[in-house]
Every structure is written in structure tokens, then in C-alpha cells.
Amino acid sequence: MKEELSAVLDGAAAQDREDAVLTRIRADAELRERWQVYCLIGDAMRGERVTGGSVVDGVMSALESEPTVLAPRRASRLKGSLAHRALPIAASVMGVAVVAWMATTIGGDPEVRAVQPVAKLDAPPRHVAPVATGSIEPHREYVFIHQASSRNSPLPGVAQYVRSVSEVQGGAR
User: Does the predicted TM-score (pTM) go above 0.70?
Assistant: First the structure.
């Protein structure tokens, strides 16, 4: 076993053999002590500083000497209280309120103002004479047609179309 242990320390052992030796070292306390002695001899031969005791042994003994405290976890104050049960309900209500508010403010109909009644005028109707065709500027018809097909209005094409059609027909009379 000494030769196998030495071969593992030197890195000359086969992988399967090395695994078997390390498994036996973990199980046997005497082999662990021999392993530590061989490691100390190697450290001394390489000129590395040799400590009096093993660091692992010191840590393990310190852990063993510490008391084990088995205490239950501290109970939460909110658990089982009214606030603990009411918070999820309040969050749900707030979520519904936000969704309802967003639905009414975004994409809703614009505010419609009430129209005040207009007083009836008892004046005789006036007759309007049509404008002569020659007085319309040559480019004006083009401008009206362009405005009708333009998409720059809130209702694309509707108001301009009505204006341009009435202007063209009114000028043609």
C-alpha cells in the first residue's frame, strides 16, 4: 500500500488505481495519517514551510467544538394578520381601477359640448348670384382637388372634399 500511496503522490499511478487509493484513504484513518506524513515529507524536501498542525484538522476540531443551535425560525408578524390577507385584495382592486381609468382616458370619445340654441332670425332670404366662371383662378381647382386627396386633416378627405365639390360646382353654374 505504501508504494501505491507514493505513486499517487508522485502522479505516476493510473487513473483507476488512483481513484481506488483515494477511496481507501477516505475510509481508513491510518492511511490518512500516512498520507499526511508523506505530504509533510514532500513539503520538507521541496523547502516549503511546514506547519505544526494540519489546517483541515484545526478547522474540523473548531467546528466540532462549536455548539449546535437548533431554534425554530422567527414567525412573521404579518402571517395570519388582517393586513397579510387584505394586501392581495387591495392590489387586485387597484389593478382593476388602473385598467378602468386607462380605458376611459385613452381612446375614448372626445368631449362633446352642448350646443346652445340659436335664436330664430325673421329676415327674408337673400339671393346669391353665382360667380362667373372666368373669375376662378386656373390653379384654384387644382388646389381644391389636392386638398381633397390630402391626408393632413382630422377626417381625411371629408371636409376638403365637400368644400372642393361645392366650390367647383358653384363656379361652374
Answer: no
